[in-house]
Amino acid sequence: MSTGGPAELVGMAATELRSGRAVIIPTDTVYGLAALPENVELLFELKQRPPDKAVAILVARPADAEQMFDPLPATRRLMEECWPGALTIVQDGCGVRCPDHPLVQALAAAVGPIATTSANLSGQPTPHTAAEAAAAFPAVQMVIDGGRLQAPASTVVEVSEDGLNILRQGAVDVGVILE
After folding, report:
1. Which residues contact 75 (CB under 8 A, 6 or more apart)?
2. Alpha carbon distance 138, 128 (integer Å)
3. Residue ranges, the chain, pLDDT below 70
């Protein structure tokens, strides 16, 4: 487990990510297994997960999502109303989230967008503590302890010209999205 002040932890995690390694980070929902997008295959390898499953890209601020896609009007509205927060928006096949967690925002500001997935082996329950996440991934050298996380996973909504499609109900109320 890595300890230190927030700036020190961000610096250490940034070094790990830039070196092509994965880190385990707390988010506003669950612990995430994170890597830079160019190293996303590492996440699939560590999770023992097929590469056809998507991962989310975490960004430091809503405007950073525009690096991934040109937001449709409905996407822009969701970004304005629900970010930062526990909503993953999928548009043009890319899932992006701006988490409401200062450490993750600082890390994404330092290194750019971060590819993440929940810090559990494929098919296993999502861990609630850093120790549980670390036990699942002994090869990951940096684990940031954010305490016990018991929030639901993010809600995932796909936006297209045809409208919204809820892919996973999570922390954000779908009713709010559909209004």
Report:
1. 69, 89, 91, 159
2. 16
3. 2-3, 179
